[in-house]
Design goal:
The two termini are 22 Å apart. This protein folds into two domains: 191 residues, FAD/NAD(P)-binding domain; 100 residues, D-Amino Acid Oxidase, Chain A, domain 2 (2-Layer Sandwich), CATH 3.30.9.30. A hairpin with a 4-residue loop joins strand 15 and strand 16. A seven-stranded mixed sheet has the order 5-4-15-16-17-14-18, covered by helices on one side. Strands 9-2-1-13-20-19 form a six-stranded mixed sheet. A three-stranded antiparallel sheet has the order 10-11-12. Helix content is 31%, strand content 29%. The chain has 362 residues and is of the alpha/beta class. The structure holds flavin-adenine dinucleotide (FAD). Flavin-adenine dinucleotide binds next to helix 1, strand 2, helix 8 and helix 9.
Length: 362
């Protein structure tokens, strides 16, 4: 089976890995010219850790995990309201078995695991036409190809999704978030600092990365859907500055570092809720198919598990396996999406995450 995967985030390379393990051919086309850096520290937990283990990556993933010693909540004038050496808002209890890892570190490990996968960076699908036996693909570069299956792993704003389900728009959850790297001008030592500006509807979480050399700055604000150009990063930085400067403390200084950040990322907190994930020989996985939003803390785990289940069902039954992929994954997806809507004020509470751990059998 020849499979074309759109998107080299987490879901795409994970699917490519599992397809290769099952003896299929995998090509990944990624719009960006190279693997995209950046992103928050993400949690890999529950059954997703089993998937990582089966990929032979558990040791490397644990080695690359963040090593926070604790966290502080600050007031706008910098006064420490409370601190904890047991808990960090990004990941819950610091002694838990879950692994918190920077998004780009995980993406690199997953991408490296897959042998014999063709990666086409700096290209994208420009046209798809399917018939009973395959899918004809036209690439933006002008190249063409025919595949047995096309998988959209191209994230929250998936173009593959728009092609097969043009009416499906993400459900906005009332907030936006920006994440970027800054030098560790605060001198933090494996520590997280959080601020909540309830009166301006904004918040920030800052933590160390790369042996304290860097900070990952997360700033967000509540808002209905905003009309902005997703390719105009300057306009997005201006929005963030306008909405978050009032948080006080060192935030204006950290916002000034946004312009030089090599990995500025800005997006809506949103979910993708679809009645079906496939149309004929074209299917979706990860955020493209069932983004649970950063509020769930489960987007990466869903992507890893989805890739595993999809590849397994394709290996068992070919394209006919798409229906089983969906039947197996849907309850797990719905439970994880509910974590976000049940926790609108912040990442999902650890006690609700336990429910997710038992929601699917590999
Ligand atoms: C740079 C970056 C930073 C992120 N930071 C965070 C974060 O801080 N917090 C959080 O909760 N989640 C973040 N995410 C999303 C997070 O990675 C996903 O929720 C989760 O890991 C599931 O991964 P995914 O592979 O489905 O989607 P993603 O990781 O979003 O990967 C999708 C990939 O598809 C590519 N792509 C998009 N459109 C096309 C196209 N038309 N053709 C080809 N390729 C395309 C993108 O460039 C990207 O590499 C980030 C994603 C990216 C790309």
């Amino acid at each position: 089976m020849r499979v074309l995967i759109s998107g080299a985030g987490i879901a795409g390379p994970a699917l490519a890995y599992w397809l290769r393990r099952h003896g299929a051919e995998a090509t990944v086309v990624e719009r960006a010219p190279a693997p995209r850096p950046g992103g928050q520290a993400l949690d890999v937990r529950g059954v997703a850790l089993d998937v990582v283990d089966r990929m032979g990556l558990l040791g490397d993933v644990r080695k690359a995990r963040t090593r926070m010693r604790g966290s502080s909540m600050l007031a706008a004038d910098g006064t420490e309201l409370f601190r904890s050496t047991e808990f960090a808002p990004s990941s819950g209890r610091l002694d838990s078995d879950d692994v918190e890892i920077l998004r780009d570190d995980l993406a690199e490990l997953v991408g490296r695991a897959a042998d014999g996968v063709e990666y086409r960076y700096g290209d994208a699908i420009a046209g798809l036409e399917q018939d009973a036996d395959g899918v004809d693909v036209r690439f933006a570069s002008g190249a063409t190809g025919r595949f047995d299956l096309v998988a959209g792993a191209d994230g929250l704003h998936s173009k593959v999704r728009r092609t097969i389900f043009p009416a499906a728009a993400p459900h906005h959850l009332g907030a936006y978030v920006a994440v970027y790297t800054a030098p560790n001008v605060l001198g933090l030592d494996e520590w997280q600092v959080w601020l909540r500006g309830e009166e301006i509807g904004a918040g920030a979480g800052i933590y160390t990365a790369r042996d304290n050399a860097e900070l990952r700055v997360n700033v967000g604000f509540m808002s209905d859907v905003l009309p902005y150009d997703r390719h105009d990063l300057d306009a997005q930085r201006t929005l963030v500055r306008e909405r978050c400067s009032g948080l006080g403390w060192e935030i204006p200084r950290l916002l000034a570092a946004m312009d030089a950040a090599p990995d500025f990322y800005f997006d809506a907190m949103a979910q993708v809720r679809l009645d079906a994930w496939s149309s004929g020989r074209i299917t979706l996985l990860g955020d493209a198919g069932y983004c649970p939003s950063p509020l769930s803390g489960q987007g990466t785990s869903l992507a890893l598990v989805g890739a595993y289940v999809l590849a397994e069902e394709l290996a068992r039954s070919g394209v006919g396996g798409l229906a089983v992929y969906e039947t197996r994954m849907r309850p797990f997806v719905e439970l994880n999406q509910a974590l976000a809507t049940e926790n609108p004020g912040g990442p999902a509470a650890p006690e609700s995450i336990d429910r997710a751990k038992v929601a699917i059998t590999l």
